Amino acid sequence: MTIRVLLADDQALVRAGFRVLLETEDGFEVVGEAGDGEQAVALAAEHRPDVVVMDVRMPGTDGLAATRRITADPELAGVKVLVLTTFDVDEYVYEALRSGASGFLLKDTEPVELLRALQVVAAGEALLAPTVTRRLIAEFVGRPEHRRVNPSAVREVTDREREVLALVAGGLSNDEIAAHLVISTATARTHVSRIMTKIGARDRAQLVVLAYESGLVTPGGH
Known about the structure:
The chain is built from eleven helices and six strands. It is of the alpha/beta class. It folds into two domains: 125 residues, Rossmann fold (3-Layer(aba) Sandwich), CATH 3.40.50.2300; 76 residues, Rossmann fold (3-Layer(aba) Sandwich). Strands 2-1-3-4-5-6 form a six-stranded parallel beta sheet, sandwiched between helices. It is globular, with a radius of gyration of 17 Å. Keywords: DNA-binding, Phosphoprotein, Transcription, Transcription regulation.
């Protein structure tokens, strides 16, 4: 399967570098380039890429605002956003995930890691840079004003699902969760899917954020 990518960055040289990298690899196609967030939203609607590589700081509509608009549009439900920035700032990480991004990487990431990130995000998994830890996310989602999960939805989560959710928040894949709990991968996938439905998460990245916001997962323990 070819992964269709939209590049959104205000620096033409950065976009050109990404385009060369992707076009020299099998399995990737660059469907468009945007120099700002407004253009990124328009091109996402026009081309329906699998993944938008989104810079955070851009003139006018920034990357976070553009990400919110893309992920909030039901017609763009299949479009994933991978936020890529030079700024290793905690607040950006959290806001990117809250905005609906499926992944977050720094621009100094090795090319092979960017390619892997695109594959992971396109497949519907969450991808966080190594510097992004559960503690960091929890620092922000632990604030009372951030909590937005319906309490009744939290009560519907079973003890087993809480256990699975803690492993998801720890960055484990379905295969790793299955091995840890000695269950089948299909069962692990079903648990994750049911939890996402119960608390209203659109993907695994948002599931991690909502897990902390709801108090289902807490920093340093589960």
